[in-house]
Amino acid sequence: MNIADGIKQLRGRGREIPDASRDDLPQFFVDMGYKVGAEIGVLRGAYTEQFCKAGLKMFAIDPWAPYADYRRHSKEEPYDVCYEKTVQHLAPYDCTIIRKTSMEAVWDFLPDSLDFVYIDGNHRLHYALYDIWEWAIRVRPGGVVSGHDYEVVGKHPQSFQACHVLYAVEMYTRTWGIKDWYILGRRFPPEGEHRDKHRSWLWIKSQGGQ
Fold it and tell me: What is the pTM of this model?
């Protein structure tokens, strides 16, 4: 099922759109008439490039730097190497690279100034919740708030490489009464149906502002 049909046909909290993945998002955004978006957490720019190839104007936001309570994975490349790869990947496109933390960069954007945001930054609970909270304000009504890694890994707040995105999405949508939001791909897909290993989530921002 494509994303547009899933949104039209399915209603409810955390509805799974079958046979869908984040690779479908760039074309969905183009079909929606969107022009400009931001990705929060870029690493080497490979996924940002998918949006750019679809003809979307992008802001690629990542600090590419250590900060107080972030622990790098031992297999990650040095920050500056990741940054240089991002610059090379995105040089041919209409993309502005912003080397700041999410909460530093968010103040560079006016409310309702983006058609969509894709959040893939620090996945621990408070960071994920701050990202959703602040970046949703920057998406216009009728635009899409979305992100990666709808899951929980490491329930202790200080656990290494913890992911609490599922909790952050649940908290935000319950707080603001968002009745319809979606997960790309089924948790247990039947044979032959595709989904990302780490699923993405999204909702369309209402005219009321959430």
Answer: 0.94
Widest Cα–Cα separation across the chain: 45
Q: Which residues of 64-98 are buried (b: 16+ CB within 10 A; e: fewer)?
A: beeeeeeeeeeeeeebeebbebbeebbeebebebb
pLDDT by residue (tens digit) across 155-188?
Answer: 666 666 788 899 999 999 999 999 999 999 999 9
| CA dist., res. 4 & res. 13, Å (int) | 16
> Within the chain, where are the H helices?
3-9, 25-31, 46-53, 79-90, 102-105, 125-138, 165-175
Task: Decide: 20 and 3 in contact? Cβ < 8 Å.
Answer: yes
Residue for token digits 């999405």?
169
Name the pLDDT band for 74 (thresholds 50, 70, 90). very low
pLDDT of residue 207: 67
- Tell me which residue has tokens 């968010």: 106
Amino acid in the structure at residue 153? V
Helix, coil or strand: residue 184: strand
Distance between CA atoms of 183 and 20, rounded to whole angstroms? 9
Residue 146 forms beta bridges with which residues?
118, 202
